Amino acid sequence: MIRFSLLTTTYNANLFSLKKLSFFNLNSRPSLKTQMADYTSVSVPSSKLLFRQLFEKESSTYTYLLADVTHPQKPALLVDPVDKTADRDISIIKELGLTLIYAINTHVHADHVTGTGVIKNKVPGVKSIISKASNSKADLFVEHGDKIHFGNLFLEVRATPGHTLGCVTYVTGDGPDQPQPRMAFTGDALLIRGCGRTDFQGGSSLQLYNSVHSQDTFKSIMENLNLPYPKMIDVAVPANMVCGLQDVTKKSCEPLAT
Fold first, then answer.
1. Domains in the chain: boundaries
2. For residue 245, pLDDT beyond 90
3. Locate the Metallo-beta-lactamase domain: which residues (predicted)?
């Protein structure tokens, strides 16, 4: 059996327990002099992969930094960056001597504005990535089975719709030259002891059930949550549909090769 660590975008402990899954639940957040918010340093048993879990307090969003530190250029990527903490993320990347090449999203978020647009403006050469099924703007679009390479490491793309129509999970690569244990970046498809809501943006409790294979009462729970209207959705979704930049008039949109 392959061991996975599942890493979510948003912390939520209120929905239900998922007994068969192993999570990182990280509370200790040491500081860097250049940082502007909390982050967590995680020890991964690999000499190649540098990994950091970052946190944005207002929306309780986790951002993940990964890099191949054995590659001469130390290429790095960010998973689910937030606009309000983009400067912090850039500072940490500079502090660590990394080269940011991708800023990627697991889906079009409704609780915050993505940091990809801000980061692209401040770090030349960075490309944004999102799923083709999201129907939003980005530099590169991915589909199930694609691979995102950074140095000699890569992430596999897995379609996990249900929270939104375009949700994907990014899984660290499989192979003797890839870090172990493997990690899955689930976005809001799967949270810590919970999952994302399914009542907007093309969400479907049945689709999400099939995506995460949870428990028998899942459909009933999700359809009877009676949650309030998301307070940031009218700002966050339109902004995130254009990569966090509402005034973009010219964007390159090309598929990412497998």
1. 4-249
2. no
3. 60-232
Cβ-Cβ contacts under 8 Å for 224 (sequence gap 6 or more) = none
Domain boundaries 4-249, corresponding CATH code: 3.60.15.10
* Nearest Cα to Cα of residue 113 among 195, 56, 194: 56
SS3 content of the chain, % helix, strand, coil (to 5): 15, 30, 55
Q: Identify the sign of the CA torsion 132, 93, 90, 10.
A: positive
- The structure tokens listed for 112 are 């915050």
d(CA 184, CA 156) in angstroms, rounded, equals: 9
Tell me the C-alpha distance between 93 and 122, whole Å: 13
Q: For the segment 1-48, what is each residue's pLDDT rounded down to a tens digit?
A: 334 455 555 543 332 222 222 233 222 333 333 333 455 555 455 689
- Distance separating alpha carbons of residues 201 and 252, to the nearest angstrom: 24
